[in-house]
Automatic annotation (TrEMBL):
It comes from Dreissena polymorpha (Zebra mussel). Keywords: Fatty acid metabolism, Flavoprotein, Lipid metabolism, Oxidoreductase, Transit peptide. SUPFAM superfamilies: Acyl-CoA dehydrogenase C-terminal domain-like. One of its GO terms (biological process) is fatty acid metabolic process. The keyword Plastid does not apply. Residues 206-324 form the ACAD9/ACADV-like C-terminal domain. This is Very long-chain specific acyl-CoA dehydrogenase, mitochondrial. InterPro entries: ACAD9/ACADV-like_C, AcylCo_DH-like_C, AcylCo_DH/oxidase_C. It holds the Pfam family Acyl-CoA_dh_1. Pathway: Lipid metabolism; mitochondrial fatty acid beta-oxidation. One of its GO terms (molecular function) is very-long-chain fatty acyl-CoA dehydrogenase activity. The keyword Lipid metabolism applies. Residues 6-154 form the Acyl-CoA dehydrogenase/oxidase C-terminal domain. Gene3D superfamilies: Butyryl-CoA Dehydrogenase, subunit A, domain 3 (1.20.140.10).
Length: 333
């Protein structure tokens, strides 16, 4: 029997991982198509005596679409590198890529329609079919909602293992002095807001040093927050899905930051013709992603946010019990 009794689940997971990776690569092409359609229209459409791509509002849309494509494609390269190296344990990376790619493809197609205006609705434009076809990608190969919980919980399992190791070592501190001192010092530094030694400066291009620092700080904060959440909730963390969603979003952004840093550094080192633009995309993404990471991690440990989550639970329960909208019409209808 292949692959042996009890091995079927691993086979199923590997099939899903390959499917999710394939989706990332395919959707990178879809995003490229959406950008091409949007740019082609923006470069020709005249308004107020200017091509619309000359206006700041359009420039921001086009830039964000290009950045989303760059991150998606960089994630695909990163995951394929793991696969080519023979790694079997890349389910978190595949899940992250699937979520980011499917949501970015939807974002870019939607923005392409917005840039094209009414023309975007026309079948002849080619973009309206993309919008119709894209919606399913956030559902199959694992819904993005479930994958977010998978990312957060799988990552926390590793962190939980580290905490169990130090708890076990504390039962015999003399015999496990190295473990106690090493992990204890690391945890204390995090509590005090000090660095535990994470640095990317030796592997990123000097032009991207700020982005490298932002990524290293995000990794530090992520580790500290996960430890804090595990110590607070313990096994009941599995029931805190609103918290887990924020943790997953932070993990997705951090993986994106690492992916673009690696690719942009290589382009700068090799003097690629697109190196400067890649550097700009990397810097913008890392700056914005670091802000999102800070916000999501702060929310996940905030007492005020927890109370807000409780209110949202109550609202949902009331709406379900009522079978729809709860509030009365202000005019009494």
């Amino acid at each position: 029997m292949y692959p042996g009794v009890g091995g079927g689940f691993k086979v199923a997971m590997n099939i899903l991982n390959n499917g999710r990776f394939g989706m990332v690569a395919a959707l990178a092409g879809t995003i490229r198509y959406s950008i091409h359609k949007a740019v082609d229209h923006a470069a020709q459409r005249l308004q107020f005596g200017k091509k619309i791509h000359e206006f700041g509002a359009m420039q921001e849309k086009i830039a964000q679409m290009a950045i989303r494509h760059y991150v998606t494609e960089s994630m695909a390269y990163m995951i394929s590198g793991n696969m080519d190296a023979g790694f079997k344990d890349f389910q978190i990376e595949a899940a992250i890529g699937k979520i980011y790619a499917s949501e970015s493809a939807w974002f870019c197609a939607d923005e392409a329609v917005q840039i094209m205006g009414g023309m975007g609705y026309m079948r002849a434009s080619g973009i309206e079919r993309v919008v119709r076809d894209l919606r399913i990608f956030r559902i199959f190969e694992g819904t993005n909602d479930i994958l977010r919980l998978f990312i957060a919980m799988t990552g926390m399992q590793y962190a939980s293992g580290d905490l169990k190791e130090i708890q076990k070592a504390l039962k015999n501190p003399v015999g496990n002095l190295g473990t106690v001192m090493g992990m204890g010092t690391k945890m204390m530094k995090r509590r005090m807001g000090l660095s535990t030694g994470v640095s990317l400066q030796s592997v990123v291009h000097p032009d991207l040093s700020t982005a490298g620092n932002q990524t290293a700080q995000a990794i530090e904060k992520f580790g500290a927050t996960v430890e804090q959440l595990l110590m607070k909730y313990k096994k009941s963390i599995i029931d805190e899905q609103m918290v887990l969603n924020r943790v997953a979003d932070a993990a997705i952004d951090i993986y994106g930051m690492v992916s673009v840093l690696s690719r942009a550094s290589r382009s700068l080192k090799n003097n690629s013709p697109s190196a400067q633009t890649e550097s700009h995309m990397c810097q913008v993404f890392c700056e914005e992603a670091s802000l999102r990471v800070d916000n999501n991690l702060a929310i996940s440990t905030s007492g005020a946010a927890h109370k807000r989550f409780e209110k949202m639970t109550a609202i949902s329960n009331h709406v379900v019990q009522a079978g729809g909208i709860v509030q009365e019409h202000p005019l009494g209808f």
